[in-house]
Write a structure and sequence with these properties.
Elements (H helix, E strand, L loop, with lengths): L3 E7 L5 H12 L7 E7 L4 H13 L4 E6 L5 H11 L4 E4 L5 E2 L3 H11 L3 E11 L6 E5 L5 H7 L12 E3 H6 L10 H11 L3 E13 L4 H5 L2 H16 L5 H16 L2 H11 L2
Parallel strand pairs: 1-2, 1-4, 2-3, 6-9
Antiparallel strand pairs: 4-8, 5-9, 6-7, 6-8
Length: 271
């Protein structure tokens, strides 16, 4: 199986204890990464710097740090980190989630079995507080055909648990400079340009959600970015007019109606 890199981005509002848990979960994979590239997206807190300094001193050949003088946003930070990754296969990881130990081994095996794939993802367990309190499972479509169809209206991957080919991501221009939805936009462009993808039928990451997670889904920027993303897909003839209208109506309704309605929409988008 090929060597792989891990790509992470951290910014000032993240918690040091969560960052520590995220890095640990990648260091202790059943197949260890070749490198962990961490982009410091703007100035950080002393606590975050302390965690990064500690892991860099203990693992000088593993941890690689890239620094942005100012916060550029997730998409631009990931583009910088991706360019610094030395391997073709790159595992994305967020700095507040926890990968399961076998995550990367299973993804590497899928790439070895099917070298034509550009993206391999999986399901995720959503938890509150600690990983023993899983409140829901986000299941994603499995086959390349199902993913292509699903992606026209909803994100067919969970971003923090994907592994992709660096050349394929950079080949379509990398992440767009968007405040939200950079991952769905990227995946849609990759799929529209003929990239093949699969999701493994198992949960491979614990995804941290807060008690106000659904309330944040009603945020105007979240709603706007989702509609704009499908509009872009419509312009490049990936999504159709029906897809665009359904997404626009669903997200606008989610912003207008009470939280109970948001829960129904959220449950629908999890399946």
């Amino acid at each position: 199986m090929e060597p792989y890199s891990v790509l992470m981005s951290v910014y000032v509002k993240e918690k040091a204890e969560y960052l520590r848990m995220a890095i640990d979960s990648m260091i202790h994979q059943t197949i260890t990464p070749d490198e962990i590239v961490i982009v410091e997206d703007g100035p950080l807190t002393d606590e975050l710097y302390a965690v990064l300094d500690e892991y860099e001193s203990k693992n000088p050949r593993l941890i690689r740090r890239c620094r942005n003088e100012v916060n550029l946003g997730l998409g631009m930070a990931l583009n910088k980190g991706l360019a610094a990754c030395k391997n073709e296969l790159v595992a994305r990881m967020d700095t507040d989630d926890i990968s399961k130990p076998e995550r990367c081994e299973l993804q590497l095996k899928r790439f070895a079995e099917k070298p034509e794939l550009s993206i391999v993802g999986a399901h995720i367990d959503e938890f509150v507080g600690d990983i023993g309190n899983v409140v829901s499972i986000r299941k994603v479509p499995l086959t390349s055909e199902e993913i292509y169809k699903f992606g026209k209206r909803r994100n067919p991957f969970s971003h923090p648990v994907i592994m992709y080919r660096k050349s394929k991501v950079l080949g379509i221009g990398g992440y767009a400079d968007m405040p939200k939805g950079q991952d769905w936009d990227l995946f849609g462009r990759m799929l529209c340009n003929g990239c093949k993808a699969e999701n493994i039928d198992v949960s491979l990451l614990w995804f941290r959600v807060g008690m106000n997670f659904l309330q944040r889904r009603k945020n105007f920027e979240e709603i706007k970015s989702s509609i704009i993303t499908v509009w872009r897909f419509f312009q490049m003839r990936y999504s159709g007019i029906c897809d665009l209208m359904i997404v626009a109506c669903a997200y606008l309704a989610m912003g207008i109606f009470p939280i109970g309605f948001t829960k129904l929409i959220y449950k629908y988008t999890r399946q």
